[in-house]
Amino acid sequence: MVVAEAFIRTAMRSDLAAVKSLLAETWHATYDSVIGAEKVDEVTSLWHSPEALESRLSAPNSEFLVADTGSGITAMAFASQDGKVIDLQQLYVAPQYQGSGTGTKLIRELLSCFIGAQTIKVQVASANASALAFYQACGFAGDGSDPVREEMTGMDHVTLVLAIPEQHRWDAL
Predict the structure, then answer these.
(1) How many domains does the chain have?
(2) CA-to-CA distance for 103 and 88, rounded, in angstroms?
(3) How far apart are CA 4 and CA 116, in angstroms?
(4) In-domain check, residue 53
(5) Partners of 82 in the beta sheet?
(6) CATH at 119
(7) Range of the domain at 31
(8) What element of type H or E holds 160?
(9) What pLDDT, in 10s, does the model give residues 135-164?
């Protein structure tokens, strides 16, 4: 694990190539042994294409964050809000920075971005034991629903939720 102080900020168009590389590296490190490198290439080329990433920059009711060390992007997160629920759709930390606290910083920042949110949820691949352990360490727990199979990857995903503590809620200005 590399420890480098990272500044959490809103992603910009100029970050997208670095984010795409980060996502490809992280997906290969995490899922090559589960679904194979060719399938990971297929998924990342579609889901993390420049067009897909750019659309997130202007998505309504959302936040696209990066962790920037000044010399590179080490992590990213994307979430949107629907009513009182934050839907954490992506949170990826470069393998060499996992365990450094960057993922936790991203979650904390996301909690401050959405007015009126009371819950944050995330779907995690059942095969991703380190991500499951990370979210559980952050206080997330299963929502009681059955796992959902993601069609393109064939991986089962579980839904984890966290009731946002009162002190982290932003109900009004």
Answers:
(1) 1
(2) 12
(3) 32
(4) yes
(5) 85
(6) 3.40.630.30
(7) 7-168
(8) strand 156-163
(9) 999 999 999 999 999 999 999 999 999 998
